Amino acid sequence: MCQLFINADSQLWTCRTKSLRIDGVVTSIRLEEFFWDILAEVAFRDQMSVNQMITKLYLESLDADHDIGNFTSFLRVCCSRYLSLVADGDLAREDNQALNDLDAQSVLEQEQLRAALRKSRFGVDTSKSSIN
């Protein structure tokens, strides 16, 4: 199992910092190349630049009253969720349909059902103690 990860291209976990302006404020975001690649893919689907998409995510998060104190973590989770939706068949990478055009409620409901199934299958029994 570990060879799948250890022998991957080491450039994927190299960090890159990108400066951008969000709502008139210059900020910088530091992410691994792997995440920048996924953000570029998602932005391409919605016909935006990565900077435009990040700005849109930031502003929509504020509008939804989310705590975005660790925005880079939020972006990593967005990338991971995108890949999970692709793996589960809710999205096709070859499809150029904008994410904004999807029935988000339906996709979220399916995602919640699968998450519950995963937890029941792979979940950790918290009543048992473990030694690390």
What do you see in this structure?
Strands 1-2 form a two-stranded antiparallel sheet. Helix 2 (33-45) packs across helix 3 and helix 2 (33-45) packs across helix 4 (71-87). A hairpin with a 2-residue loop joins strand 1 and strand 2. The protein has 132 residues and is α+β, with helices and mostly antiparallel strands. Helix content is 52%, strand content 12%. It is built from five helices and two strands; from the N terminus they run H-E-E-H-H-H-H. It has helices at 2-6, 33-45, 50-63, 71-87, 104-122, and strands at residues 15-22, 25-32.
Structural class per helix/strand content?
alpha+beta
Write down the oligomeric state.
Answer: single chain
Q: What is the 3D shape?
A: globular
Q: What's the end-to-end separation, in Å?
A: 20 Å
How are the SSEs ordered, and which strands pair?
Blueprint lengths: L1 H5 L8 E8 L2 E8 H13 L4 H14 L7 H17 L16 H19 L10
Helix pairs in contact: 2-3, 2-4
Can you summarize this structure?
This protein is α+β, with helices and mostly antiparallel strands. It has helices spanning 2-6, 33-45, 50-63, 71-87, 104-122, and strands spanning 15-22, 25-32.
